[in-house]
C-alpha cells in the first residue's frame, strides 16, 4: 500500500531565478517522472544552500522503491492509519474489454464533443509561491512559480486546487485564446478537500464566458473528459476515459479521507484544478492527483461534485471555509462472532466498536470506549464499518459524517452493556496533536539562549527529514504523529528544533528535535505557554525537562542577555514569532 504513490497534478514552471535546483527538482527528473510536483518543502535547500538532513531514529525505509519516484506528502495512508477512518467500497473495479471497451471509447469521444462548448470556461492558473522555511522559521524559502488549471463557476468565481495556490504571493488567470493574464484574489482555501476559490476584479475577464454547471455523481463506466493545461504544451488539453471506481480515498494534500472518483483518463502535472465533464457537458469533478506505480497505468483521481458543493455551500453559508467535520473516535470492526457476543450484540445487530474517543471532540461527553455504534443519522452501520451507497455499492460510514457541516448535529445509536442508547452529538473539525497543515500561516518559534523551540507539524517533519519523514523521523515523534491525541484544543508538541551554538549553550549543541516536557517543573502545554513562562521567569535558573530524561539548565540572567547577541549573529529579526506576542 505504501508503494502506491498518489501524485498531485500541478504543472511546474521555472523557478524565478531560472534555477531548477532551487525547486529541488532537476530537469532530468521532470522528464523522467511525467507527474511532477514542485513544492520546495520537499527539498533540503535553504536560500539556495544545501541543508543537511537531521539524523533520524525512525523506522527503516521500505525497499523496492524507484529512486526517481517523487514521493508527495502522504501523511497517513489508509492502511497505515488502521481503521480510524478506513473505509471500503467493496470490490467494485470495472475492467472493460472487447466490444465493451470499444463502446466506452465511443462514449468518451461523444463526451469530449459535448464538453467542447464549455472549454471557454477553463482557465490557466499562474501562481508564484513563497513557502515558509520550517527549519529556519524566521525566514521564507526562495519563491518559485507554477501553472495549473481552473474553471469558472457562477457568482464571478473560479475553482482550482488548494495545492495550486498554496503559500501564494501572486495569482494570475488566463482565459482560453487570450493573451492577457488577470490578477486574481484568493477567496478561500479548503485544505482538507484540496479546493480553492478565486475571483477576478477586472470586469473584462468575465465577458463572453458562461459559467460551468455541475452534474450529478457519475456511475461506474460513465464517460468523463478531463480538460486542463498539463505539462507537454501551452494550449488546452483534453483526455477522455471512464469512471472506474468510486470510494473513500486519501487526499494527498493533507491526507484527509473523502469521497473520490478514480478514472482511467490521464491526469498529468498541470491538470490540477481542471474540470472533468460528463457526456452532457456538465462538470462532475475536479482533477487533483494521480497514482504512480510500476503495476498501475492511467489511474487518475477526481474530486466529485458532493465534495465540491460542500466546499461552496460552506463558504456561502459561513463566509469562510470551516472544514469537514469528523466523529472523533477510533473504531474497530466487529466481524468476529465471539467479539460480538462478548459485548452483548444480538444476531441481528451490526456495528463498530469504539476503541478511543478524542478528548477534544464534543462527543467525548457522551460516547465511551467499548460502545458499539449501531447507526449514524438513522443509517445502519455494518460490522466492517460500511453503509449502503448506491445499487450494488457500499461505502465507509465516514462518508455520512463528511456530508455534514462543522457545528451540525447528528443522531447516533449505540449499544452499551447490552442496552441501546441514542445520543445527539455535535460534529466538529478534527484537532490533531501534530497537525497535517498550518493553513497558510507562518510557523511559530521561540529562541532563548540559542535554543530554538518550535511546534511540530507534518510540514515541519517533512522539512527536517525529507519526503521519507515517516521512516527517518525519531520514533517517539512518529508514535505521537500516528497515535497521540490532543488533550485540549490548544495543545501542541513543542521541541528543541536546534541549538544555535554560543558560549552559553556549550555541551547542548547536539540537541535536535527533542520534545520539551516541562519548564521549571511546570508542564509545557504549547509553544506560547513556554514562551510566556520563560519571559516571566524570575528564578535563578531556566530548567527544561526534555524527552529521553534529558535536562537543560541555564542561568536565567545570562541566557536572556546572550539571546540578543545570538540573534544578531544569525541575522534573526526577533526572538519569537509574531503570533506568540498576542
Automatic annotation (TrEMBL):
Domain PDZ: 342-427
Residue ranges of every copy of the Protease Do-like PDZ domain listed in the record: 434-579
Basic residues bias (residue ranges): 1-13, 53-64
GO BP terms in the entry: proteolysis
Keyword vocabulary terms for this entry: Hydrolase, Protease, Serine protease
InterPro entries (alphabetical): DEGP_PDZ, DEGP_PDZ_sf, PDZ, PDZ_sf, Peptidase_S1_PA, Peptidase_S1_PA_chymotrypsin, Peptidase_S1C
GO MF annotation, one: serine-type peptidase activity
Alphabetical list of Pfam families matching this protein: PDZ_2 (PF13180), PDZ_3 (PF17815), Trypsin_2 (PF13365)
Region (Disordered): 1-24, 41-69
UniProt similarity note: Belongs to the peptidase S1C family.
Protein name: Protease Do-like 9
Amino acid at each position: 500500500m505504501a508503494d502506491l504513490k498518489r501524485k498531485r497534478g500541478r504543472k511546474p514552471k521555472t523557478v524565478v531565478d531560472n534555477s531548477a535546483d532551487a525547486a529541488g527538482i532537476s530537469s532530468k527528473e521532470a522528464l523522467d517522472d511525467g507527474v511532477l510536483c514542485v513544492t520546495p518543502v520537499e527539498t533540503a535547500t535553504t536560500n539556495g544552500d544545501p541543508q543537511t538532513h537531521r539524523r533520524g531514529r525512525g523506522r527503516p525505509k521500505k525497499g523496492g522503491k524507484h529512486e526517481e519516484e517523487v514521493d508527495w506528502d502522504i501523511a497517513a495512508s489508509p492502511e497505515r492509519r488502521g481503521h480510524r477512518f478506513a473505509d471500503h467500497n467493496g470490490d467494485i473495479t470495472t475492467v472493460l474489454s472487447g466490444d465493451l471497451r470499444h463502446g466506452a471509447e465511443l462514449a468518451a469521444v461523444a463526451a469530449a464533443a459535448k464538453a467542447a462548448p464549455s472549454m471557454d470556461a477553463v482557465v490557466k492558473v499562474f501562481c508564484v509561491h513563497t513557502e515558509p522555511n520550517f527549519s529556519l522559521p524566521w525566514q521564507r524559502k526562495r519563491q518559485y512559480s507554477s501553472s495549473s488549471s481552473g474553471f469558472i463557476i457562477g457568482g464571478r468565481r473560479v475553482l482550482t486546487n488548494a495545492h495550486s495556490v498554496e503559500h501564494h504571493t501572486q495569482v494570475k488567470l488566463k482565459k482560453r485564446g487570450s493573451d492577457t493574464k488577470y490578477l486574481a484574489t484568493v477567496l478561500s482555501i479548503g485544505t482538507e478537500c484540496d479546493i480553492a476559490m478565486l475571483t477576478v476584479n477586472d470586469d473584462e475577464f468575465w465577458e463572453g464566458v458562461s459559467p460551468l454547471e455541475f452534474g450529478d455523481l457519475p456511475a461506474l463506466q460513465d464517460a468523463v473528459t478531463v480538460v486542463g493545461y498539463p505539462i507537454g504544451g501551452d494550449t488546452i488539453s483534453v483526455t477522455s476515459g471512464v469512471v472506474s471506481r468510486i470510494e473513500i480515498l486519501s487526499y494527498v494534500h493533507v491526507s484527509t479521507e473523502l469521497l473520490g472518483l478514480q478514472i482511467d483518463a490521464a491526469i498529468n502535472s498541470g491538470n490540477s484544478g481542471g474540470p472533468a465533464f460528463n457526456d452532457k457537458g456538465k462538470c462532475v469533478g475536479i482533477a487533483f492527483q494521480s497514482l504512480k506505480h510500476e503495476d498501475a497505468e492511467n489511474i487518475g483521481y477526481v474530486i466529485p461534485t458532493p465534495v465540491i458543493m460542500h466546499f461552496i455551500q460552506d463558504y456561502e453559508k459561513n463566509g469562510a471555509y470551516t472544514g469537514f467535520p469528523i466523529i472523533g473516535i477510533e473504531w474497530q470492526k466487529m466481524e468476529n462472532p465471539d467479539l460480538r457476543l462478548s459485548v452483548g450484540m444480538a444476531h441481528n445487530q451490526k456495528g463498530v466498536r469504539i476503541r478511543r474517543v478524542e478528548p477534544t471532540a464534543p462527543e467525548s461527553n457522551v460516547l465511551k470506549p467499548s460502545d458499539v455504534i449501531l447507526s449514524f443519522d438513522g443509517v445502519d452501520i455494518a460490522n466492517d464499518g460500511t453503509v449502503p451507497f448506491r445499487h450494488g455499492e457500499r461505502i465507509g460510514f465516514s462518508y455520512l459524517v463528511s456530508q455534514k457541516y462543522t457545528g451540525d448535529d447528528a443522531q447516533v445509536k449505540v449499544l452499551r452493556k447490552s442496552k441501546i442508547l441514542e445520543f445527539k452529538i455535535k460534529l466538529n473539525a478534527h484537532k490533531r496533536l501534530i497537525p497535517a497543515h498550518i493553513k497558510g500561516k507562518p510557523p511559530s518559534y521561540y529562541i532563548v539562549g540559542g535554543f530554538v523551540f518550535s511546534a511540530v507539524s507534518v510540514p515541519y517533519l517533512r522539512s527536517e527529514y525529507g519526503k521519507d519523514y515517516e521512516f527517518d523521523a525519531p520514533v517517539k515523534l512518529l508514535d505521537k504523529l500516528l497515535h497521540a491525541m490532543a488533550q485540549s484544543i490548544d495543545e501542541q508538541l513543542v521541541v528543541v528544533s536546534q541549538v544555535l551554538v554560543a558560549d552559553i549553550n556549550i555541551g547542548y549543541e547536539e540537541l535536535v528535535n527533542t520534545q520539551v516536557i516541562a519548564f521549571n517543573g511546570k508542564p509545557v502545554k504549547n509553544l506560547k505557554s513556554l514562551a510566556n513562562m520563560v519571559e516571566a521567569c524570575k528564578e535563578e535558573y531556566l530548567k527544561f525537562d526534555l524527552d529521553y530524561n534529558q535536562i537543560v539548565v541555564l542561568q536565567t540572567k545570562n541566557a536572556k542577555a546572550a539571546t540578543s547577541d545570538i540573534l544578531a549573529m544569525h541575522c534573526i529579526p526577533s526572538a519569537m514569532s509574531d503570533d506568540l506576542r498576542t
